[in-house]
Amino acid sequence: MQEQIGDVAGRIWAYMNQTNEVVTSYSLTQALRLTRAEVDRALGWLAREGQLEFETTPRNATLIRLRPSA
User: What angle do CA 7, 12, 15 make, to 5 degrees?
Assistant: First the structure.
């Protein structure tokens, strides 16, 4: 399971790095054809590594972007 989560996290990171867009977890499920659970686990992995920044909009949507490299 950890290997699968790591693989999905890598796909998400590559997609976000390539598109350089702010995304939502839903947009990731659609763009990468993943399940919500796969995306949530992988986002947790990337967040734990300090790779992501999150922003909540006034309508309670969570926007996700890659944290700029130092």
Answer: 125
